[in-house]
Design a protein that fits this description.
Layout (H helix, E strand, L loop, with lengths): L1 H23 L24 E2 L6 E2 L9 H29 L16 E11 L5 E5 L3 H18 L10 E5 L15 E5 L4 E5 L2 H14 L1 E2 L4 E10 L5 E7 L7 H13 L4 E8 L2 E2 L8 H6 L7 H12 L4 E6 L6 H6 L28 H17 L4 E3 L8 H5 L5 H18 L3 E5 L12 E4 L3 H9 L3 E4 L11 H5 L13 H4 L2 E8 L9 H5 L2 H10 L7 H14 L9 H10 L6 H8 L2 E2 L2 H4 L14 H4 L5 H12 L3 H18 L13 H23 L5 H14 L6 E2 L3 H11 L17
Parallel strand pairs: 4-5, 5-7, 10-11, 10-18, 11-13, 14-15, 15-16, 16-17, 17-18
Antiparallel strand pairs: 1-2, 3-9, 6-7, 6-9, 8-9, 11-12, 19-20
Helix pairs in contact: 1-2, 1-23, 2-23, 2-24, 3-4, 5-7, 9-11, 19-23, 22-23, 22-26, 23-24, 24-26, 25-26
């Protein structure tokens, strides 16, 4: 196997040498010199790029930024033929030398303990599962789903054969998934069989997901590497909050995201069911809530029971959130008597924080909430019930001469906590519910940060962290991965205080996400948060995380989430049925803006379609991250050339699509900027290869252009500028130390 890998490696080096050679051995040509605005020819140091098939000259990369766009077209032929050459040879490499299992499996989350051993277990048509020990319906159903997934991932139809995987469960899980249940498991894989053992059914569910991640093609069959895993979660509360109020999410969207949650061992689905823009749960006690407050988009009580059962079968708790006393405009559409000020009211169509709030001074409000909370409590068996409690605007309270806001809000929360206790529930709320007098069984969900979380823990309250896990801000996975529930001030807690930190939740607010785009805003980045909450605290290697995240992102397709398939579909719609390769190149080089940037760009409402490139683009560009890696490690200049040349040539291919297409027209300037970015990058690579220092005026002008192109356009950021700026930094003169003058040049 090692010998095969060495030969494959040598062949790949030869492939990239083919691409590198034309750049390294380019005779000078003046046939395509580009003139500066002053009428002077390009510098003599410029070199001609040669086509690797026919040594056909294309223009040199000039120092004049005014010629960048013209050169992009001339570079196109080189890129297309060079790329085709590499693609065919790479295909031959993998045809002759099949993919081998990695020494360390791409598991996410990383298990607590992992020991990889020699050999691998073969998966073929004889694969079957044997259950030993405790058996219940949830386990039997899970094994059926698991076997079907193994068949989907391998394309193998199984026949009756010997048991390959033995699942041994010592006892049942709680009938309703609960906080602090035992989720541990052990997985032993040898070349002849595999054994999964767990104290409970829930632990077996977690172990089956690990087994599914391990399946990969080997030289002759699908294999699972021989290993031993002893695994357990670091935190008991590992959640995903999904806002279905601002944009409606049908049941199939919920189901596929529950499947993906189970795949990465998240165990709490926090269902944000009401806000100013809609209330999404059917009430038979107060039917005007959904009749007038939902636009007809709500979950029937049968839907809710189905989702709760669907989640429970996958070891996931469902915690509902009905946000009160603020964020309640949709409630008042049907029941205006609950409000602090007279109506009339209608569902909010815009995004923001609004003044209408419940009146906490009227007993009728608590009577209404008693009936509503009791009805909802019967639908959701989890012991926790979320009341929101955040962002209460007190304008109406003050105008009525109500008691001070903090006092009134605290009184309201205590009354609601008592009602929930009456219905067998414990209250959970955002930071703002944390007031003196709140019973200590309340859980505080912190969006403000570790300091507020630590303060609550010191005062005897349990808490979960969401600060740093807001997916709608579209931060990179590395940002979320660096946030730890026991980081910052929480890291100074005593052991008993730290034990009150239950874990964390990723939050997906949906002002700028629909049922079509929400998967791409959650996945795969939520898997990085899942690892932070499951894996040992020592799992902090960002490069390792990204390597595994790329694999897990593809694997998540099997769960049904559409973060990858929806991307291509949206690009095809943008192109109006035309071929999309050039649009895909542009989309792969940009990154979508998060809520903080989009809300300041234009006025959105629930009626505005989210169908532009800003909505299709991913939060993180894999292409840009790969080029960043090459530049940082100073390796694979040939691959960097391919990427940069593709960017440089792309505008000429994409420009014809702009005419007559209102969705693409706004991208014209962005497309030109990508080509300019690619050309500047190619020039920088030439200076690096030649060892020559670029003229200071060229360097200054290039940096100025990059700074301009870094500014968002069409509500996306041109991420391609990042690695090119890094290239410019590599060829820039070293900075003069502070306080030390540069030595004068010696006149020789």
């Amino acid at each position: 196997m090692i010998e095969h890998c060495l030969v494959a490696h040598a062949l790949m080096r030869a492939v990239f040498a083919l691409v590198r050679t034309p750049f390294a051995r380019m005779p000078r040509s003046r046939s395509h010199e580009c003139e500066r605005g002053t009428g002077q020819a390009a510098e003599k140091g410029s070199r001609t790029v040669w086509n690797i098939h026919r040594l056909k000259p294309v223009p040199p990369v000039t120092n004049d930024l005014t010629c960048l766009v013209a050169q992009a077209s001339a570079c196109e032929a080189f890129f297309q033929q060079a790329h085709e050459c590499v693609r065919h040879i790479v295909f031959l490499v993998f045809l002759v030398f099949p993919v081998f299992l990695p020494a360390s499996p791409s598991l996410m989350p990383q298990p607590a303990q992992l020991a990889v051993r020699e050999g691998a277990l073969k998966i073929d048509s004889s694969f079957s599962v044997r259950i030993a020990g405790h058996t219940d319906r949830r386990l039997l159903d899970a094994v059926t789903r698991f076997t079907e997934r193994v068949g989907q991932q391998t394309g193998i139809r199984f026949v009756d054969g010997r048991p390959v995987l033995s699942i041994e469960v010592r006892g049942p899980a709680p009938e309703v998934p609960a906080l602090n249940e035992d989720e541990s498991y052990q997985l032993e894989v040898t070349p002849t069989n595999a054994r999964l053992t767990a104290p409970t059914t829930t632990g077996a569910l977690r172990g089956m997901q690990t087994f599914l991640q391990l399946i990969a093609p080997g030289p002759d069959s699908f294999l699972v590497p021989a290993l031993h895993i002893d695994d357990r979660p670091r935190f008991p509360w590992r959640g995903l909050m999904l806002d279905v109020a601002r944009h409606w999410m049908p049941v199939p969207v919920i189901e596929r995201n529950l499947e993906a949650m189970a795949a990465v061992k998240l165990n709490v689905f926090h269902w944000h069911l009401s806000d100013d823009q809609g209330i999404r749960a059917e009430s038979k006690v107060y039917p005007k809530l959904q009749q007038l407050g939902s636009d007809g988009h709500y979950y029937t009580q049968a839907d809710i029971r189905h989702v709760v059962a669907y989640a429970a079968d996958r070891g996931i708790r469902v915690v509902p959130e009905f946000d009160i006393p603020g964020h309640t405009t949709s409630w008042f559409a049907g029941y205006p008597e609950l409000a602090s000020a007279p109506g009339p009211f209608q569902i909010e169509r815009k995004w923001g924080i609004f003044e209408p709030t419940m009146d906490p001074t009227r007993e009728e409000v608590y009577t209404f909430l008693d009936g509503f909370l009791g009805e909802m409590a019967s639908l959701f068996p989890d012991e926790y019930f979320h009341i929101g409690g955040d962002e209460v605007v007190d304008t109406e309270w003050k105008s009525k001469g109500f008691p001070p806001t903090a006092e009134l809000h605290a009184q309201f929360n205590r009354r609601i906590q008592a009602l929930l206790k009456k219905h067998g529930k414990k209250m959970i709320g955002w930071d703002e519910v944390f007031h003196p007098g709140l019973a200590n069984d309340a859980v505080i969900q912190s969006w403000r940060g570790p300091a507020s979380l630590a303060e609550a823990a010191r005062k005897g309250y349990r808490g979960i962290l969401s600060f740093g896990y807001y997916l709608d801000h579209l931060k990179p996975a590395a940002f979320h991965y660096a946030i730890d529930p026991l980081g910052g001030e929480a890291g100074q807690l005593t052991a008993p205080e730290a034990a009150r930190i239950l874990g964390g939740e990723a939050c997906m607010w949906t002002e700028y996400a629909t049922d079509e785009t929400v998967d791409s805003r959650i996945w795969p980045r939520a898997a990085a948060i899942a690892e932070r909450l499951w894996s040992p605290r020592e799992a902090v290697d960002v490069d390792s995380m990204y390597r595994r995240l790329a694999t897990v992102s593809r694997w998540l397709d099997w769960t049904g989430v559409q973060h990858r398939s929806g991307y291509q579909r949206m690009l095809e719609r943008l192109a109006g049925g035309e071929p999309v390769p050039a649009l895909r190149v542009l989309a792969d080089a940009v990154e979508a803006l998060g809520i903080a940037d989009r809300q300041s760009t234009r006025q959105y409402s629930s009626f505005v379609p989210l169908n532009r490139l800003a909505d299709a683009a991913r939060p993180e560009s894999e292409t840009v991250r790969r080029l960043n890696q090459i530049v940082d490690q100073k390796t694979d200049d040939a691959e960097a050339k391919l990427i940069l040349t593709e960017w440089s040539a792309n505008h000429n291919q994409l420009a014809p699509l702009f005419t007559g297409n209102f969705l693409l027209r706004e991208l014209a300037g962005l497309s030109e900027d990508l080509s300019k970015t690619g050309t500047i990058g190619l020039q920088a690579l030439q200076y690096l290869e030649s060892g020559q220092r670029p003229p200071s005026d060229w360097l200054a002008e290039a940096k100025q252009e990059l700074h301009r192109m870094e500014q968002p356009r069409a509500e996306v950021a041109l991420a391609a500028t990042r690695p090119v700026r890094a290239l410019l930094d590599r060829i820039s003169p070293p900075a003069t130390p502070t306080g030390q003058a540069r030595k004068p040049a010696i006149n020789r």
